[in-house]
C-alpha cells in the first residue's frame, strides 16, 4: 500500500515539475519575442535582464528536483514576469505584433512600397 502511494506521489510530482518547466519555457519565449523598447516604455528592467533571469530559471527547473529551493526561487521569478512584466509589455504594445495591423505596416501606417 505504501509503495502505491509513494509511486503515485512521485508521478504527480513529476507531472507538476514538467508543467512548471513548460511554464518557465513559455515565459522565456514571451520575454524573447517582446520588443526591447517595450521594456523601457513599461518601466521594467531590460530585455536582457529578463532573458538572463528566465533562462537561468528554466535551466534550474530542468536540472534540479522540484522540492529543492532553487526551482522555487526560479518559479517566483517566472511568476513575477508572467503576472507583472508581461501584462505591462502587452499594454504598451510590446508583443510580436502590436495592435491589429498588417505585417507590412510601418511606424506611421501601411507601407505601400513607394
UniProtKB/TrEMBL annotation:
- Kindly state which keywords UniProt assigns to this record, in alphabetical order: Membrane, Transmembrane, Transmembrane helix
Q: Where is the composition biased (Low complexity)?
A: 104-114
> Which InterPro entries does the entry mention?
DUF2516 (IPR019662)
Q: Does the keyword Transcription regulation apply?
A: no
Residues covered by region (Disordered)? 91-114
Specify the superkingdom: Bacteria
Pfam hit, one = DUF2516
Transmembrane stretches in the record are 50-83
Biased composition regions of type Gly residues, renumbered to the chain? 92-103
Q: Specify the protein name.
A: DUF2516 family protein
